[in-house]
């Protein structure tokens, strides 16, 4: 007999799914190349990465997974940095790193949580 998914696991699943969607959107934005300062795409990219970090933070309240530390710290910075100081290269590197290092962890955890009955 398997146990049903807890409320905490359900919230984690939703947060990780939303984080994955935000990262996918950021990757889509980068298909057009690195955004330039003042480009609307740069703001959209920053918002996606802010959302990515926020969803990871919400998915792991009180128990921040070490792998999520970078995106959460970036989220904290993006929440307070003036738009004119956004650094496209930092955002692009963050998307690339999240894609290679964090996305596989998120996908594995989503799979684990999806295997638990709702």
Question: What's the helix and strand layout?
Answer:
Blueprint: H1 7-30, H2 40-59, H3 69-78, H4 88-114
Helix pairs in contact: 1-2, 1-4, 2-3, 2-4
What does this protein structure show overall?
With 118 residues, this protein is mostly helical. The chain has four helices and no strands. It has helices at residues 7-30, 40-59, 69-78, 88-114. Helix 2 (40-59) packs parallel to helix 4. The longest helix is centred in the C-terminal third of the chain and has 27 residues, at 88-114. It is elongated, with a radius of gyration of 15 Å. The protein starts with 6 loop residues before the first helix and ends with a helix. The model has no long low-confidence stretch (mean pLDDT 91).
Which terms would index this structure?
118 residues, mainly alpha
**Largest sheet data:** none
- The fraction of residues assigned to DSSP E strands is under 5%
| Average pLDDT figure | 91
- Low-pLDDT windows of residues: none
Radius of gyration over all CA atoms, rounded: 15 Å
């Amino acid at each position: 007999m398997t146990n049903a998914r807890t409320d905490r696991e359900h919230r984690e699943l939703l947060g990780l799914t939303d984080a994955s969607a935000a990262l996918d959107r950021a990757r889509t934005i980068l298909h057009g190349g690195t955004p330039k300062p003042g480009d609307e795409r740069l703001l959209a990219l920053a918002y996606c990465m802010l959302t990515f970090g926020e969803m990871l933070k919400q998915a792991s309240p009180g128990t921040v997974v070490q792998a999520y530390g970078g995106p959460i710290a970036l989220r904290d910075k993006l929440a307070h940095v003036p738009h004119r100081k956004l650094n496209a290269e930092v955002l692009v590197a963050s998307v690339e790193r999240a894609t290679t290092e964090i996305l596989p962890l998120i996908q594995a955890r989503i799979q684990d949580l999806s295997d638990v009955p709702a």
